[in-house]
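Kindly draft a sequence, keeping tokens residue-aligned:
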Amino acid sequence: MTKQFDGPVRINGTTLHARLDGPAHAPLVAMVNSLLTDHTMWDPQIPAFTQRYRVLRYDARGHGRSAAAPAPYTIDMLIDDLLGLITHFDGGKAHVVGLSLGSLTAIAAAILRPGRMATIVAADGRPDVPVQFRSDMDARVTQVRQDGIPQSMAEATVKRWFTPSTWSAQPPYLRTIEKMIVATSVEGFVGCTEAIKDAGIGGRLREVKLPALVMAGRHDLTNGPDVMRPVHEQIAGSEFAVIEDAGHLCNIEQHTRFNETVLAFLARHR
């Protein structure tokens, strides 16, 4: 693996922390993190992906080491952050891999501004906003505005994101994810949550014309196969994959299966 860049980039009126790894002239894969994490959630992908690709990762605005502009944010802001970084690093048409918030960003970009994208991988991230889902997000925003992001919220979130067997085994990465959650700024959480709520792309999936792979962890309690399969069914020509024995962060919990599935898809569209 060759690190090409690791630092701040001024993009779209804010400062985003970005990292670029891999061979200098290889095709670019941009990876977009979930809500309440940072770019290091993709660490399990790097050894496998950088054998064939340049990998661009960054902390979504308000997360990790990226600046936390005042909320709310919009899906257009998140798309412009992604595409601005692809342009900054001269990525041509990039493959975009997103999970959760990153999945929504990838799908929205494929609908609204697909010109800088070659393919999308959308994992565990619903583009629709049902009434109960919106209500739950509103409640969390209210709680975070009042209390910040306490350790108890981080622990509960991690327990929900991973399968019971992984939670029982207590691998070290669970503590790493908890630290990411607690480190997320209030503005970043609130801003990105508002972007999710107001994205307005749930009814526009048939407009995606790029090659797409839709994925779900079998045991994701929020965005599992029952949620992601209809996304696949509305995107013409898309592929669908379920990662067994995995919850929400399937790229971490079953990283080998995730890597093999995504790399095989990308190889079909190089």
About this structure: The chain has a mean pLDDT of 96. The two ends are 20 Å apart (CA to CA). The chain has eleven helices and eight strands. The longest helix spans residues 131-147.
